[in-house]
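Q: Convert this sequence to structure tokens.
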Amino acid sequence: MAYSRISFQASRGEAAQEAKAVLGARYGDVPAEQADVIVALGGDGFMLDTLHRFQELGLPVYGMNQGTVGFLMNEFSPDGLDMRLAAAERAVIHPLRMRALGRDGNTYDALAINEVSLLRTGAQAARLRISVDGRTRMNELVCDGAMVSTPAGSTAYNYSAHGPILPIGAEILALTPVAAFRPRRWRGALLPMSASIRFEVLDPDKRPVNAIADSTEARDVVSVDISSARDISHALLFDPGHGLEERLLSEQFQ
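A:
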């Protein structure tokens, strides 16, 4: 598919800003509201920020790495961008929807493309109760935290916490503990994408917990509800042979 109107978005880094100037001069640069594709210049964190900021426009996003890891990005080159965009493979992903209830009675709503995580903030381990679709599955998990990850986010924080890598087309969510103490060595669970997951914070006065949806944080929570936001989709563009499905598969054989 050919894209004639490109909006370049760059992180604050010097290299990304220089790349934006070069690419804009060569291919033209229009506001996102007038574009038919967004090219994000930065790292994975900037890609997530770009997807969140321009979600309502429904535009595909093609990333070029000007950051550190760049798992969600393509290799940077100023040449042949129009042809790369026309030949790009499309991957459609759905975020998670988080609703967290704070001890202050306030409710916090946020979306997460990678994961929703709960992390202890005090000196003592968190105590969490886990329910799936209204049924209690674990009365008490004593841990540093826990998270629910999408397939797209399964190679990020989830993988660092020894969670599984999920194929991008899998209708599965990964529930992964962080440093589980009891049940000792519990490695988590795989849940259907349709599942509704609820965490309840036990003893929040003594063992406070924060909830984070990508980079949006809700502090001092007492419960967190998580489900897949199937009504929201993001389209990512990748060079042929280097799509998200291939990257997730290759990651497992390194």
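Residues 14-27 form the longest helix (14 residues).
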